[in-house]
Amino acid sequence: MTRSVRLARRTSRTLQMAGAGVAALLALSACSSTDGSGSGSGKDSSGKLSGEVTVFAAASLKESFTTLGKEFEKAHPGTKVTFSFGGSDALAASITGGAPADVFASASPKTMKVVTDAGDASGTPATFVRNRLEIATLPGNPDKIASLKDLTRSGLKVVLCDQAVPCGAAAQKALDAGELKLTPVSYEEDVKSALNKVVLKEADAAVVYRTDVRAAGDKVEGVDFPESADAVNDYPITLLKGAHHTDTAQAFIALVRSAEGRKVLTGAGFLEP
Question: Which residues of the chain are under the pLDDT cut of 70?
């Protein structure tokens, strides 16, 4: 056998062994980094939760969820919770459009249904809190607003959420219950934007959630109105298909629904589910 033939055979065997080794390594890596569904479990080699969780949540949840996110990271070193807050309708559209997210918390079952109907939810969404509307006025309530009907007064600058957003749909439902018609100076994309118009004194009043009035502190004054009882919103939460760290995402959802999570949420003004 010539030297060149022996060299060719030796090179071929070496390449075959290397290829087998790489294949085995890739298979081992795949088994260790994903669960049965193909998504990462979110646990390290010791079984502790790890990895980043991306949560899409209604704007009204900003303060409460930020607090819960910090508590979660403290309880589970090695994890990170990243939030994207906004109008529930816009968030739902982003999810169905392919935006990467692990958890969705909506301000209404209607916007959650957009996600479930598209097949982007994993499991059945669960209602974890409810929220009620309130009128936010300028500090000291200089316009003496005492009812929803007062918002229809001539010359009063009132802001509402867009009706595609849960807070806007709820406001319209309350107005219908009171048989009232109101033309706002603007429709805002989410509840924080509506509230901010009053904070910046660009509007005299806004119909927002009670939780947002409380979060604003002395920057606004809140006025309850009976029609809000006809427009209470349920807030559902769900794990999303395609979640990268499923165990970690499910653990965050569990915290939100736990007694500890409910304490934070009700402390912010949310209602029990």
Answer: 1-47
As a whole number of angstroms, the distance between CA 212 and CA 197 comes to 13
CA distances, 19 to each of 7, 8, 13, 30, 179 (Å):
18, 17, 10, 17, 75
pLDDT at 231: 95
- pLDDT for residue 165: 94
Which of 66, 108, 57, 105 has its CA nearest to residue 85?
A: 57
